[in-house]
Specification:
Largest sheet: 5 strands, mixed
Distance between the termini: 22 Å
Oligomer: single chain
CATH architecture of the largest domain: 3-Layer(aba) Sandwich
Strand content: 5-15%
Length: about 450
Amino acid sequence: MPHRRNIPSPRVAAAAFALLALTAAGSAGAANRGPDGSRAARHVSIMGAWAGADEKSFRAVLDEFETASPGTTATYDSAGDAFPDTLLKALAAGKGPDVAILPTPLLLKRLVARRDLRPLPFARSTVAANYAPVWLQVGSVRGTLYGVVFEASNKSTVWYDVKSFRGANVKAPATFPELLQSARTLRAWGTRAYSIAGADGWTLADLFENVYLRQAGPKRYDLLAEHKLRWTDPSVKAALRTTAKILGDRTNIAGGTAGALETDFAQSISQVFDGPPKAAMVIEGDFVAPVITASTSAQPGTDFDVFAFPPIGKSGRVVVGGTDAAIVVLLRSTPASRALVSFLATSRAASVWVKRGDFTSPNRRVASKLYDDAIRRRFATALAQAQTFRWDLSELQPPAFASAAGQGEPKIFQDFLRNPGNVNGTAAALERAAVRAYKQ
């Protein structure tokens, strides 16, 4: 799946690069030790995946931390896309950092299970003061806080062609029934409503996840993520039927079903925003914005805009989080490392990067005026005010089921796009694939 900072390519985790990064991380760790092998109490080492411009922005955050904590120094080692493997190898060699910035919640759970992480009771009050209650839950495992979500992305967004909406006299829908009605109105006006990237099955899974979380609720979503709820459960079938109200509206999809199955993620965007629109909407995450601006001449507000994936029933403010995250965790507890974790939970820390741009914080104390454009400001507001937040299922399930091309969820949802009336068969196929993947 694409990452907001790496679109449309997926992560690269070459073994050679991982070993090279591990060597660099180990050398930095050794350099920070005193003659007796102990670490200076006033120094903190950090490892993460940020590189390039992101690394420069994070170093600016660390500069602010050092200003706020006189006499304390912080060093950052970037492992790039090889970060997960590099961190695990460093920990196995006893050369891990004091603090790590994790890109996925699955890695958080793995490190907790390995007993590599230290709990964060000292930071709980700071997180509670700066974040909506849901973020304490997001950073916790079995009720214990282990992570501070410094950055998050939003997959609960719908992008639309402003001129098509204006021409059809359609406003951004506030409910799911209004979304369906808007689609019908657009079709009657002369523009198909949906551009669907069916060639990339993960986009179809994202659509289902947004429906399922809103319709079935977070408890069932959590159970499904751990396969403690079967994919043949009535709640899954109900969500498939709701999803089919979009995927089954074949005359309202650019290119129809056959065309959608040949359309990849980038093409689904160009069909709406590059030249005369073939459709009016793309249902995908906040990482659509940089693709629009990089590949088309469309301008925000004038040519394109965004609205939140609407609630279903009484679901309230719900956000499905994307694959580009930053979860601060503690591996070695020292006064300096605890101070850094607490600092990164404050609005002062997040504001440094927000001012530099290309960053979205769930910290509700960050002033919205600091964001560089109105669209990103809306992303941040949605995250900060979320009543329910869950990572997308690809971050919580075995890759063989959730994200492997040509198999598991992506392939089965492509089959569902071909035949959206086959709810029972789709649910059964998902269950069979899940059983195989969770046994591996």
